[in-house]
Amino acid sequence: MAAAKLMHDPYNLIITGVGGQGNVLASRMLGNVLTSQGLWVTIGETFGASQRGGSVMSHLRVSEQGSWSPQIPAGKAHMVLALEPLEALRVLVKYGNPRAKAIVNSRPILPVAAIAGRTSYPATEELEGMLAQLTAQRWSIPATDRAMKLGASIFANIIMIGALAATGDLPVSREAFEAELRRALGHAKVAVNLEAYDLGVAMVGQ
Question: Which of 176, 182, 172 is nearest to 81 (CA)?
Answer without folding.
Answer: 172
